[in-house]
From TrEMBL:
Pfam family, one: PLDc_N
Compartments, record wording: Cell membrane
The protein's name: Cardiolipin synthase N-terminal domain-containing protein
Major place of residence: membrane
Length: 96
């Protein structure tokens, strides 16, 4: 089985963290458009967070398992890091 780190939501989460770090560094160097980069990071992070919440609720593999409420809490409380953890630990179904 393979981890789901190529999922678009996982990649959006990585982009949001990269933009946040870049915006903070630019702000520290007094670059005036650093706020735009930080705002973009929050927008990407919000999209990733909502996508991960919807994915946890609609994932058929988690239906009826005790791990679904745990993943819902992790994704909601640790936003957007929780979503990245969910996609990194989620397993892809392999169909032949």
């Amino acid at each position: 089985m393979k981890n789901d780190t190529t999922h678009p939501a996982f990649i959006i989460g990585l982009v949001s963290y990269f933009l946040l770090i870049m915006g903070v560094v630019l702000k520290g160097n007094v670059i005036h458009w650093s706020y735009d980069v930080i705002l973009a990071a929050f927008v990407f992070g919000a999209v990733h967070w909502v996508w991960a919440i919807i994915d946890v609720f609609t994932n058929e593999d988690l239906k009826g398992t005790p791990s679904r409420p745990l993943w819902i809490l992790v994704v909601i409380i640790l936003a957007p890091l929780g979503g990245m953890l969910y996609y990194a630990m989620k397993r892809k179904r392999i169909s032949f």
